[in-house]
Amino acid sequence: MSFGLPALIGLVLLGQNPLAAAQPAAIALVPDDWPRLPIAPLILGMTLGTLANAAITHALWRRGRRAFQIGTFPDVLPKTREDILPAIALAISAGISEELFFRLFLPLLIALVSGSALAGTIIAALCFGGVHRYQGWRGVVATTLSGVALSVLYGLTNSVWMAIAFHIAIDVNALVVRPMARRAWRA
């Protein structure tokens, strides 16, 4: 959450429009003449994946088994139904601020200093994983790889908003959908 304002200020200082969806040329790893991924099937896939994950989580819960989880993050999981809206707000805030910082501002800054878009992308993904160290080492590895995947998504769609949408969906899935599917708040 604390990454949004620094990203916005940094982007303005670098002469970038923080609300522009298109990827700046300095961090573009995908050539301009490559076809971009269509957005509608991505959103459909994201939605169907979330629903499938909820169904699998619920089915396992009904059998008394736990669904696979990579990282641990008990401090941010909602404990009651009243915590659901703040968890959704956290997911939205993290998705927007972290994507602006780790997929746009930080890679751009590193690329401008180093001359390498690839270095900017990799270092930003490693930093993204590092700030998720509260999830344990498996969570750090998973979020680092997720950071790379979100960077690829950003490049292939040329839209930071798609990376933001996927980040929000991942967080809502982990913080709200899966706990709801296993009826974490029965009271």
Tag the structure with descriptive keywords.
single chain; 187 residues; mainly alpha; 6 helices
Explain how this protein is built.
- The structure is a single chain.
- With 187 residues, the protein is an all-alpha fold.
- It contains 6 helices and no strands.
- The protein has helices at 4-13, 39-62, 84-114, 117-130, 136-157, 160-181.
- Helix 2 (39-62) packs parallel to helix 6 (160-181), helix 3 runs antiparallel to helix 4 and helix 3 (84-114) runs antiparallel to helix 6.
- The longest helix has 31 residues, at 84-114.
- The mean pLDDT is 88.
List the helices and strands and how they pair.
Blueprint: H1 4-13, H2 39-62, H3 84-114, H4 117-130, H5 136-157, H6 160-181
Helix pairs in contact: 1-3, 2-6, 3-4, 3-6, 4-5, 5-6
Briefly summarize what is shown.
It is built from 6 helices and no strands. It is mainly alpha-helical.
Q: How would the global form be characterised? A: globular
Average pLDDT figure: 88
Secondary-structure element sequence?
HHHHHH
Could you say which structural class the secondary elements and strand pairing correspond to? mainly alpha
